[in-house]
Design brief:
Strand content of chain A: over 45%
Distance between the termini of chain B: 41 Å
Shape of chain B: globular
Structural class of chain A: mainly beta
Number of helices of chain B: 0
Order of helices and strands of chain B: EEEEEEEEEEE
Shape of chain A: globular
Largest sheet of chain B: 6 strands, mixed
Oligomer: heterodimer
Structural class of chain B: mainly beta
Largest sheet of chain A: 7 strands, mixed
Radius of gyration of chain B: 13 Å
Helix content of chain B: under 10%
Largest interface: A-B, 23 and 21 residues
């Protein structure tokens, strides 16, 4: 079966631009997570959805970051007015249990 | 807050050697997970551990959930070139049923 997919795989943005990153989770997975991964580091939690409900957004670094999952399937992570420090790999993961999380390939965002 | 200490940071090994790495936590975990990440890809789940003392294998990989519930070990036997990558431990603490705490990773490099 299909795994988690993310698009685009690479995104280059000029500072100040808005970007939208898409995640297609594994079909039937209730839980969905967004992580930010800096080079040489482990993933850092951003936000968590259970179906369409965003139950935890404590990891979002600023109010420029916004995530949604309106129909409980596909999710979008939006970053407004991008800054250079937003450059990172953004990983999406989905899960049935919430614990065993299955990751997509990530979107590498570079802000110039 | 909870922290994970993963060691070693990197390992240079000869093909055919056995590999050991570990993670320790400042507090008790309910679940330990081991992931492998290759360049340009998301982490891939290798082994999940749910009970203190549990020993689980996945091919040449063996992981154990420490008796104190504050540590976990991953061993790789008879390493091969495709074992190269970054191995992450992740743990689920007592205060969350979904959020994972991640180690910084162990980078495995095969000597030519």
């Amino acid at each position: 079966g299909a795994g988690v997919s993310q698009s685009p795989r690479y995104k280059v943005a000029k500072r100040g631009q808005d970007v939208a990153l898409r995640c297609d989770p594994i079909s039937g997975h209730v839980s969905l997570f967004w992580y930010q991964q800096a080079l040489g580091q482990g993933p850092e939690f951003l936000t968590y959805f259970q179906n369409e409900a965003q139950l935890d957004k404590s990891g979002l670094p600023s109010d420029r970051f916004f995530a949604e999952r309106p129909e409980g399937s596909v999710s979008t992570l939006k970053i407004q007015r991008t800054q250079q420090e937003d450059s990172a790999v953004y990983l999406c993961a989905s899960s049935v249990s919430g614990i065993e999380q299955f990751f997509g390939p990530g979107t590498r965002l570079t802000v110039l | 807050g909870q922290q994970l200490n993963q060691s070693p940071q990197s390992m240079f090994i000869q093909e055919g050697e056995d590999v050991s790495m570990n993670c320790t936590s400042s507090s008790i975990f309910n679940t330990w997970l081991w992931y492998k990440q290759e360049p340009g890809e998301g982490p891939v789940l290798l082994i999940a551990l749910y009970k203190a003392g549990e020993l689980t294998s996945n091919g040449r990989l063996t992981a154990q959930f420490g008796i104190t519930r504050k540590d976990s070990f991953l061993n790789i036997s008879a390493s091969i070139p495709s074992d190269v990558g970054i191995y992450f431990c992740a743990g689920q603490g007592l205060d969350s049923n979904y959020q994972l705490i991640w180690g910084a990773g162990t980078k495995l490099i095969i000597k030519p």
